[in-house]
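wait is this the right file?? whatever heres the structure
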């Protein structure tokens, strides 16, 4: 059973009048509890043709490599969120260059927004949610130890775009599993 976040009474699953989807609705105050997709902001951080990856110190995907990224907070822009997550997870300051990749992941209600950025002064560390951070050239990317499909796709896009030195915005839908990213 779920409870109303406003008044604490039980909620019930039903389609509100004029709506088309089942929602949790309070049996006392009638508050409708909408659940909508969440935005995840992050950065593909570049330094001297290498990309910055973080090894996760948290579940899910503990020990696997990811891009600095996390849930967008209230009162910040997407770019500010990407810079904040990079400071938190990689202890790095970045200069954001452009919006680079947007992924819809409808199965889990997530939207990824990833910016291409340059590392400032080449300095980075490892934040609380990170075991270690490292710069990887294309030959060294740990392709079999990446945490999420969004990480794999972004790296694939980046190294392909490097061939032409043109970095268009990539927008696509992804699945949730690394072996079925279509
Ligand atoms: Zn209520």
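ok assuming it is, sequence goes like this
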């Amino acid at each position: 059973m779920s409870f109303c976040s406003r008044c604490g009474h039980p909620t019930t699953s039903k389609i509100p009048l004029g709506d088309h989807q089942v929602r949790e609705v309070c049996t006392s105050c009638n508050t409708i509890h909408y659940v909508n997709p969440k935005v995840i902001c992050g950065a593909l951080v570049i330094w001297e043709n290498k990309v910055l990856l973080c090894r996760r110190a948290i579940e899910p995907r503990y020990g696997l490599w990811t891009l600095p990224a996390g849930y967008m907070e209230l009162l910040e822009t997407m770019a500010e969120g990407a810079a904040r997550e990079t400071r938190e997870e990689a202890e790095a300051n970045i200069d954001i260059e452009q919006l680079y990749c947007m992924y819809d992941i409808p199965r889990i209600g997530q939207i990824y927004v990833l910016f291409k950025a340059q590392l400032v002064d080449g300095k980075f560390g490892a934040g609380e949610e990170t075991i270690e951070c490292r710069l990887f050239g294309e030959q060294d990317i740990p392709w079999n130890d990446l945490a999420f499909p969004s990480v794999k796709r972004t790296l694939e896009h980046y190294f392909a775009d490097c061939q032409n030195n043109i970095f268009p915005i990539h927008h696509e839908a992804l699945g949730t599993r690394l072996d079925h990213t279509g």
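The first helix runs from residue 78 to 90. so i think its the right one actually
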